[in-house]
Model the fold of this input.
Amino acid sequence: MKSPADTRDLALRLVLWGLGAASLLAAGCVSHNREPAGLVQSPAFDIVPRQMAQDVKEIVSSPPISLTYDDEQDGQIVTGWQPFRGEFHIARYWYERTRYHITVIPDFNDPAHRSRIQVSDETQQRPEESGLNQEAQQWSSAPDLHRPDRSSALLQEIQTRLAMYR
Done:
């Protein structure tokens, strides 16, 4: 028969072990503070909106960006997916992919001759591909993941390339 001290010691160890396991699991599920969803926008360019849309489409599909585009209509371009290493989440890194919604907008003050560009991101994620879990190999929408840094980097590259065109 165990003494009451041994029983308390065992109970204390179980509680501490449970708290440690719970804190490890919770650390993997912590939601990081993110910037709110939003657009990044360029200054106005002295380029006719229709020409700007053509230039942007050409810039995005050529090196160094080299993204395909899935849809294009009326000054709006949706690019193909770009892979990224995701965040560390539940004891592993997740895979992410981002595509961009690029919109060419006529300038309010001179819509016939000037335009600007807006870029927003859409991100999907999935866990690592190991194991037999087929669901782990399917991408899922991640509406809470906003990557304005990726949109800003794409917009910066487009702006740099536009300056070279003119």
In short: The chain has two domains: 1-30, 37-165. The longest helix spans residues 4-28. Residues 24-36 have pLDDT under 50 and may be disordered. Helices lie at 4-28, 49-61, 148-165.
